[in-house]
Amino acid sequence: MCRRPWWGPGPWAADHLVLEPVCRLDRDGHGAFLGASIDKLGRRKGWLALVVMTMVPAIFAMWWGKPDGSGLSVTAIMALSLLIGVLFSYSEVLHNSLLVRAAGLESAHKASGLALALGNLGSVSALIFCAWAFALPGHVAWSFVPAKPLFGLDIVMHEHERIVAPIAAVMFAIGAIPLFLFTPDAPHSQVPALKAFSSGASELWRMIKAMKGYREAAIYLASRMFYYDGMTALLIYFGIYSAGVMKWGRWNC
């Protein structure tokens, strides 16, 4: 007997396709605003710590998205997804602003590439572990795969899938520790935070008004935004197509 995912590909995809453009517009706009204000804020680690301490429990909370409706509602999950996406954009602006201070101008590109490679290594390692420990048990008869998901996770309640959220939250928290311990912060600024944000908003507005003189750059930025939204939509629809048309996946008979 095959089992269909409790969320269903249709509703999940529709929600995500609605949420993703809104999330991207929101985080891109706020990210640009924060980027325009960042140099006037002075120290960044305090702001980054606030973002991380908000993101970690928000990611962990996805564990309570239960199939029987006793946990988080779909609306709450969508709101958390939006919050996490926006905060992630903030974290990118904040930690990228510390890159040159940590690695130096000449080595910044090497440090950035190395960090991205290590991050990908960690994510792929976590993916392999989750597949071995939670996703494959009970579905394949391979000798090196456990017969049941580890830690006694309940397949009926999709705990073997929901466990990904706590794992991601813990990995994110642990990965942030070296940044706070070893990365030099920007010097203290005498500019109050409210004034820094106000000045950043003014500069951002002046830049937007000046975009008519940089038509090629404006076209590139808009195209890049729609490209990423389109790529996300394609990835989602590939999943729908493979499950609904090609009948791939363990929930199809």
TrEMBL record:
<dbReference type="Pfam" id="PF11700">
    <property type="entry name" value="ATG22"/>
</dbReference>
<keyword id="KW-0472">Membrane</keyword>
<feature type="transmembrane region" description="Helical">
    <location>
        <begin position="47"/>
        <end position="65"/>
    </location>
</feature>
<feature type="transmembrane region" description="Helical">
    <location>
        <begin position="111"/>
        <end position="135"/>
    </location>
</feature>
<dbReference type="InterPro" id="IPR050495">
    <property type="entry name" value="ATG22/LtaA_families"/>
</dbReference>
<feature type="transmembrane region" description="Helical">
    <location>
        <begin position="163"/>
        <end position="182"/>
    </location>
</feature>
<dbReference type="GO" id="GO:0012505">
    <property type="term" value="C:endomembrane system"/>
</dbReference>
<keyword id="KW-0812">Transmembrane</keyword>
<feature type="transmembrane region" description="Helical">
    <location>
        <begin position="217"/>
        <end position="240"/>
    </location>
</feature>
<feature type="transmembrane region" description="Helical">
    <location>
        <begin position="71"/>
        <end position="90"/>
    </location>
</feature>
<keyword id="KW-1133">Transmembrane helix</keyword>
<protein>
    <submittedName>
        <fullName>MFS transporter</fullName>
    </submittedName>
</protein>
<dbReference type="InterPro" id="IPR036259">
    <property type="entry name" value="MFS_trans_sf"/>
</dbReference>
<keyword id="KW-0813">Transport</keyword>
<dbReference type="InterPro" id="IPR024671">
    <property type="entry name" value="Atg22-like"/>
</dbReference>
